[in-house]
Amino acid sequence: MEAIENLVTRRSVRQFKAEPVPKDIIEKIIEAGTYAPTGMNWQSPVIIAVTNKELRDRISGWNAKIMGADSDPFYGAPVILIVLADKSRPTYLYDGSLVMGNLMNAAHAYGIASCWIHRAKEEFESKEGKALLKELGIEGDYEGIGHCILGYADCEASPARPRKDHYVFWAE
pLDDT by residue (tens digit) across 25-53? Predict the structure, then answer.
């Protein structure tokens, strides 16, 4: 029941404290991400854990430029877990999305706030993104799936919105 409660109470957070997240907690969150189901157990995704502030800020700048904004699209979160997946696998997009879900739910279980931020696809199609992958030793044809930003919330969690009518259709 605790797992279900965790799934139901997780919310996206868009206001973070600068306080760092302990590395052992980040490692546990990442481990949960690596256990997400993947098509044929190919494990097509990879996770880039960014805790270096200079690199975090550089990636934030790329993301803001793509978005056409001049603010921090990562809302001050000190940690970015970037999920990419191998495009040669037919289920890569689903695999990476499941990893993102596991990361966010694991973070919530450890008391860490999170949010899925888009535009990783565009970032890692860019010259800068490809250079970063090469610098990190990541070879292959990867597509950015998303950024799971992590940190301690600097706000109250929003209440869940009511679930929409006709969310579920039964075929009994």
Answer: 999 999 999 999 999 999 999 999 999 99
User: How many domains, in total, are found in the chain?
Assistant: 1
Query: Residues with Cβ < 8 Å from 14, sequence gap 6 or more?
Result: 75, 115, 155
CA distance 113 to 101: 13
Report pTM: 0.97
* Separation of alpha carbons 84 and 99, rounded Å: 10
CA distance 138 to 48: 10
CATH code of 133's domain: 3.40.109.10
| Displacement of CA 34 from its chain's centroid (Å) | 12
Q: Supply the pLDDT for residue 21.
A: 98
